[in-house]
Design a protein that fits this description.
The structure is a single chain. By secondary structure, the protein is α/β, with parallel strands linked by helices. The protein contains 12 helices and 10 strands. Strand 6 (223-227), helix 9 and strand 7 form a beta-alpha-beta unit. Helix 9 (233-247) runs parallel beside helix 12. It is globular and about 55 Å long. The N and C termini lie far apart (56 Å). The relative contact order is 0.14.
């Protein structure tokens, strides 16, 4: 890879291993002590909410929370948590549900609304943020403050991985206290999380030249598409967001079944960058394989993102983890590295440089500049 194509987004990706290794001890301690044993025993339901990258982190942890804790787990976009969730779902039992609001800045208005609304209704509220002085941290009854070192600006990657780490560790702790597995197995889960970022980094290094060549071959794309389902959805939505932020191109995502009903009718597929997730543990993988067969029939180009052994023209390999509930922390990297190169090849500027009309301005609504409104139940 020619060094002239290096950029902050690529450097963020390669910083993940060092970042997680450095913050793991502090994050593990905080997630292990943030809830008391009686509080954990009282839980019946968990609700996790966020916007943007934080919502992707919430989706990434959904299956892990369900499997590890045995609790009812709901992931809500912040607008639903703040404005639309029904009264009977909130606060009918003390400390229930556990409402987890995620915001790196701690200033996103909709996340604050959702957490405040649930707290007023009797839920136990917990914030995951890197800003201990933020409004979100002040409103939550419990806080897991992530010690994320400053880094050069790029489409958010580091905060996404750190939020996932905190959620996974919290789920492991709750399941451990509830006696769903032994302390030894809990230790193995935690070790796998630390090891996963090593595999993540190695997968980028091993494929760097291949990924750069793919970016060159797809340099004329004008839109993006992702096909994913199950535990792969969080990575797909995250990459969809990076397509907009990094390159400014429209991008959609859907599962393999919806692709047959809708996306296959796309007219200009020759200029569409299509990523297809095909994970070894996907119980619906036969439908994904049918979608690929249909694409071959249509002479469509696509990139398979997989932790399995797949024969295809374009393949991005992701680490195969022992427990696939943790796979989201390791499977978004190669597609993001490809997007980082496309950004340079197309001479794009992240988030359009936040220049007009993409910049914020006094009185103009944004993620933080928005009227706070707690909807009554």
């Amino acid at each position: 890879m020619d060094q002239k194509y290096d950029n902050p987004m690529r450097r963020q990706l390669y910083s993940i291993e060092t970042l997680i290794t450095s913050i793991y001890p502090d994050t593990e301690k905080k997630t292990r002590t943030i809830l008391s044993t009686p509080e954990i025993y009282s839980l019946k339901q968990v609700v996790i909410t966020g916007c943007g990258d934080s919502y992707c982190a919430a989706m990434a942890a959904k299956q892990a929370f369900r499997k590890l804790t045995g609790l009812s787990v709901t992931v809500l976009p912040a607008i639903e948590a703040s404005r639309m969730e029904l009264e009977e779902a909130i606060g009918q039992i003390p400390n229930n549900p556990l409402m987890i609001g995620i915001s790196n800045s701690g200033r996103v208005t909709r996340v604050m609304e959702g957490l405040m609304r649930f707290r007023q209704a009797g839920a136990l509220t917990l914030a995951i943020t890197s800003n201990q002085d933020s409004p979100l941290a002040k409103e939550a009854e419990r806080n897991v403050v992530l010690s994320i070192p400053e880094f050069e600006k790029a489409p958010g990657i580091r905060n996404y991985v750190c939020s996932m780490l905190a959620l996974f560790l919290l789920a492991i702790r709750i399941g451990e206290v509830l006696g769903r597995y032994t302390m030894d197995l809990a230790f193995q889960y935690r070790k796998e999380l630390v090891d996963s970022v090593k595999y993540f980094s190695q997968s980028l290094k091993d494929q760097e030249e291949k990924i750069f060549k793919m970016a060159q071959e797809f340099s004329d794309v004008t839109s993006g598409e992702l096909i994913a389902q199950g535990n792969d959805v969080s990575a797909a939505v995250f990459i969809q967001q990076k397509m907009y932020e990094a390159i400014g191109l429209p991008c959609v995502w859907g599962d393999s079944e919806s692709w047959f009903h809708t996306n296959k009718f796309l007219r200009d597929f020759e200029h569409t960058l299509t990523f297809v997730y095909l994970s070894k543990g996907d119980k619906g993988k036969e439908r994904v394989l049918e979608a690929l067969k249909r694409m071959d029939y249509m002479k469509r180009s696509y990139i398979v993102v997989t932790d399995d052994e797949i024969e295809s023209k374009y393949v991005l390999d992701t680490p195969l983890l022992e427990h696939d509930i943790f796979s989201p922390i390791a499977e978004f990297g190669p597609p993001c590295l490809l997007l980082s190169y496309l950004t340079e090849i197309k001479q794009e500027i992240y988030s359009r440089g936040f220049k007009y009309p993409y910049c914020d301005a006094p009185g103009i609504p944004g993620t933080v500049e928005s009227q706070l409104n707690i909807v009554s139940l």
